[in-house]
Every structure is written in structure tokens, then in C-alpha cells.
Amino acid sequence: MMEPMNVFETQVTGGLFIAAASMMWLGWTLLPAKIGDYLIVDDFAAVGAHRRSWIWLYRVHLFGYVIGTMAFVALATLAAGTPSRIIVWPAVAVLGTGLMMTAVAAAFYYHFGAWGSVDMDGKSTEAIRAFIDSLRVSTEYVTCLTRFSRVFLGVGQVVLALGLLHSGPWPAWLVGWGGGLGVAGMALTMGLPDNMGLYRPLFHLNALWLAVFGAVTLMIT
Predict the structure, then answer these.
(1) Mean pLDDT lowest among 2-6, 8-12, 120-124
(2) How far is residue 54's CA from residue 31's CA, in Å, rounded to a whole number?
């Protein structure tokens, strides 16, 4: 069984989870212009119309993944003195890799959304389309990176669930919820790779799960 945790440990871990969920979800939800998997001509004007707020909100969204990685590492340290650490730590390593890969992919859209809105300002539609075409190979690579990040996240969630069910104070329904999201993420990403938009509901559900996980952790002593 997991040894009792002190208030400082649970407050830091729970706070990181809630911060990550809030930053990821609010940063994306409040964006005045959302870029899809592939840039389109209208994206630059939409971003340019709210450039300052778009840049800051996208930064918040992007760093939400970084804080999420920190939250899971903090969670793993809570299991350091239990047999489940042999499951939890590998799970967090893969899960954290998935989150950081998502952050790197998001940075691509952040850069070309912000910089492109400046560089393409006043350019003709043909010039903008040519610019987008020049990014085709890079965008294909980023979409591949995004798919892998979602699979890694899913694998990590499933293995983490196994570890936390083995020993830990978190309720089975909460742990199982995370494992179920992991299975769904892998299934959608590998089963339907040409329709990445289907993953969007899982993004919202994952953010909710992180927030609830953080709230439950704050109540553990």
C-alpha cells in the first residue's frame, strides 16, 4: 500500500493537475481563431485580427502540456515508496513524452500562425496559398508527430491506470476513467488516422479528467 502523503505533496501535485487542465482547455477554448491540422488561406487574417490575444492564449494552451508533464512526474514521486512505482514511472515516462510531443507540435502552429499573420499581411491570395504549399511537407510531419503523441499519451494512461489500481488512494472510477480515455485515444488515432478531428472530444474529456484528478488529489492526506 502507498504510505500516507503529507499535505504539501498532495497540494503541489493536485495544483499542478488543475493548472495543466485549466491552461490546456481555456487556452484553446478562448482562442479567437483556431487553426486546423492544415493551414488555410483565411487563417492568417483571422489570427491577425486578434494577434496579441491569440499569441498569449496559445502560449497558455501550449504550456499547459508542459505543466501537465510536471503534474504526472509529481504523481510518480508519490508512488516512489510503493511496489507500483515499477509500473507508474514507466507509464509517466511514456505519457510525459506524449504531452511534450504535443507541445512541440502545437509550437509549429503557434509559430506559423503568429509569424505568418504578420508576414502574409497584405499579400495576395495566390502568395498566401504558395506560402502554405511550401509548408506542406513540414505540416505532414507535424500531423504525424501529433498522431504519435496521442498514441503515446494513450499508452501511458492505460499503464498508469494499472499501476494506480495496484496501490494508491485514488478511487477506481477515476483511475479507470483515465485508462478508458487512453484506450479511446489509441483506437481513434490508429483506427481512423485520416480524420484527426475525431480526437477533439477526447481533448476536452482529458482536460476534465486532469481537473477532477487534481481536485481528488487535493483531498487526499
Answers:
(1) 2-6
(2) 6
Task: Give yes or no for a contact between 155 and 101, defined as CB atoms under 8 angstroms apart.
Answer: no
pLDDT given for residue 58 in this prediction? 97
- Is 68's pLDDT higher than 50? yes
What the block records as the C-alpha cell of 187 is: 483506437
Backbone angles phi, psi at 135, to 5 degrees: -95, 5
C-alpha cell, 151: 498514441
d(CA 208, CA 128): 37
Return the number of other C-beta atoms located less than 10 Å from residue 7's C-beta. 10
Q: How far apart, in whole angstroms, are the C-alpha atoms of residue 113 and residue 116?
A: 5
Helix (H) and strand (E) counts in the chain? 8, 0
Backbone torsions φ then ψ of 193, nearest 5 degrees: -70, -20
Per-residue pLDDT reduced to its tens digit, 173-191 = 999 999 999 999 999 999 8
Cβ neighbourhood burial of 63 (10 Å; 0-12, 13-18, 19+): middle
Element (H, E) at 138: helix 136-166
Calpha distance 9→32 (Å, rounded): 37
Residue 61 is placed in which grid cell? 494552451
Between residues 1 and 156, the one the model is more confident about = 156
Q: Is the pLDDT of residue 113 over 50?
A: yes
